[in-house]
Amino acid sequence: MTSPDAEGCEWDFEPDLESWGGELVKGAVCLAGPQASISAKNAHKECLRRGVGFGHTFTSMENNPANTSRRDFIKTATQATAGLSVLSGIKIPYVHAQGDDIINVALVGCGGRGTGAASNSLGLKQGTRLIAMADVQENRLEASFNGLSGKHPDRFSVSADSKFIGFDAYKKAIDMLRPNDVVILATPPAFRWVQFKYAIEKGVNVFMEKPICVDAPSGKRMLELGKLAQAKNMKVGVGLMCRHCRVRGELFDRIQQGEIGDIILGRAYRLQAPVGTCFTHPRDVKTDPNELIYQIKNFHSFLWASGGAFSDFNIHNIDEICWMKNDFPIEAKATGGRTDRGDYVDQNFDHYSVEYTFRDGTKFWLEGRNAFKTHNEFASYVHGTKGMAVVSTAGHFPSKAMTFKGQNKNPKEIIWRGKQPEPNPYDLEWQDLVEAIVNNKPYSEVERGAMASLVTVMGRMSAHTGQLVTFDQLMAHDHEFAPNADKLTLDGPAPLIADANGKYPIPQAGVNGLYEYPVQKA
Ligand SMILES: NC(=O)c1ccc[n+]([C@@H]2O[C@H](COP(=O)([O-])OP(=O)(O)OC[C@H]3O[C@@H](n4cnc5c(N)ncnc54)[C@H](O)[C@@H]3O)[C@@H](O)[C@H]2O)c1
Is 134 touching ligand 1 by the criterion CB < 6 Å? Predict the structure, then answer.
């Protein structure tokens, strides 16, 4: 760990930009690397400048809170119990049936983003209250409980009886909700269809994080489930929050009105140091006795759990370009590879390059990379016949969206610049969802979220297989990474099996046809 910087933060790893959720522990120890890029440091300072609350502490792969030690867990659990004794004295009226307009919220998946999303929901003007929490890891639930009860004491009504642990915990949390309430689904995406299906059976509204599927079969299932939810008049939000950014919304309108002519090219970059759990060391049975929980803790490393680093990180930029183009691509032609990564056992390539083609023949290039000491950029651009537009500048927000005459970002040629400061899109996505609930307006982001997730899968599949993949080929593909995601148990096997050396199948372009890795026999 290096000496603290001017903000009192220590840097020993690149911050996990993706997991901020727009929030960050104020004054948190920031574990950014000695080689932390300028952009990461600036982004972090921006977070401190905004005085944002909690929701995520920066983590290195080695310091992931998923790996909280037993000592830390006992400390957290003790604090949480102390918090509960205070909270259990608070009586919150339960009068929904008599016209109470409070919306109850249940959180499933109490990690970084789930905690952030719950916090966004509890920060709304509309009365909301968190009443249940579910996770498969007790230490994650307790840490989240601790943080949320401290930040939103007036909106927090979770007790020992409404904290649930295990693979069926989501059912118990959802069972506590009434029809107009909301469940947050923020586990790794492998479980999205399982938990969404149950929420539909129970008729509760849903906020679910992206991606919402990791392969074609689960994507098709989500599209079908989305229709069922709509038929039941459920309101469903999907965590592609940039779609709720008002400045990008204005940019979209300007582009549709022809401000930069017809779009002929999109470019998106997610070039960063390794973040989250995208690189993973072999399991050490002493610290990680349970193979399935080890894979869940390191979900960015396993295609069944997350769709890998490609799906988890790149989907936002892919979705932004598709939004501006007002269409989804029909074909992907990609390359990628894995440099020497020592004994890391994850299934990810560390660099990807995708050429997407839209129906009208126009192209969209995506560059994704997780590597140290390389150029960092987290931005999206579109080019039209009369000019170009910045959709994202550095991360999710502020977008600092702009349009220019011509193809350069020439300050002398600016046509329009989005009004600053921009509201946090992680708050806006909740405002929009809850407004739809309160006014009973139709609201479903499932089709759009599934399409963004599937188009992301198409690019990843093309890179991992080395084949040109059309959307039709993707949708006809049968490789479902975790068909048994609804049947997993804490003491059961994981969907991916390691070989005798503790290694997992890594995609090899040109080797397995359109399969990203050989289908494993149980
Ligand atoms: N919209 C965004 O900007 C954004 C940012 C970060 C993460 N995300 C998304 O949020 C999701 C979670 O990411 P994260 O960074 O919070 O991960 P995380 O590891 O911090 O949290 C995931 C939590 O889910 C729990 N979990 C796993 N399987 C479960 C199951 N079957 N039932 C109940 N709990 C289970 C884990 O124990 C963990 O506590 C991912 O889909 C990710 O892509 C979105």
Answer: yes
Q: Is 504 contained in some domain?
A: no
Ligand 1 mean position, distance from CA 246 (Å): 26
pLDDT of amino acid 521? 72
* Residues in the chain, pLDDT under 70: 1-99, 522
Domain extent, residue 11, equals 1-60
Residue 520's pLDDT is what?
80
The alpha helices in 50-89, defined as continuous H runs, are 70-87
**Are 175 and 287 found together in one domain?**
no
Nearest atom, ligand 1, residue 115 CA: 16
| Centre of ligand 1 from the C-alpha of residue 262, in Å | 38
100 and 38 both lie in a single domain: no
Residue whose structure tokens are 């390191």: 298
Rg (CA), the chain: 22
Query: Domain with 406 in it: what CATH number?
Result: 3.30.360.10
> Which residues fall within 8 angstroms of residue 120, CB to CB, at 6 or more apart?
21, 22, 23, 426, 427, 429, 430
Burial bucket for residue 284 (CB in 10 Å: 0-12, 13-18, 19+):
exposed
Atom in ligand 1 nearest the alpha carbon of residue 396: 3
> Could you tell me if 159 and 226 lie in one domain?
yes
Cis peptide bond upstream of 442, omega within 30 = no
State the pLDDT at residue 522: 63
pTM for this prediction = 0.85
Q: What is the pLDDT of residue 194?
A: 98
Q: What is the pLDDT of residue 340?
A: 87
- pLDDT tens profile 247-258: 999 999 999 999
Residue 142 Cβ inside 6 Å of ligand 1? The answer reads no
For ligand 1, the distance from its centroid to the CA atom of residue 282, given in whole angstroms, is 21
Say yes or no: 250 and 129 in one domain.
no
- Has residue 254 been placed in a domain? yes
Task: Say yes or no: CB of residue 191 within 6 Å of ligand 1.
Answer: yes
Angle separating helix axes 138-151 and 70-87, nearest 10 degrees? 40
Residue 471 counted as domain residue: yes
Tens-digit pLDDT profile for residues 45-104: 544 444 332 223 333 333 333 333 323 322 333 333 333 323 333 333 333 444 578 999
Q: Is 111 in the pocket of ligand 1 (CB under 6 A)?
A: yes
113 lines ligand 1 (CB under 6 A): yes
Q: Are residues 191 and 318 in the same domain?
A: no
290 and 160: one domain? no
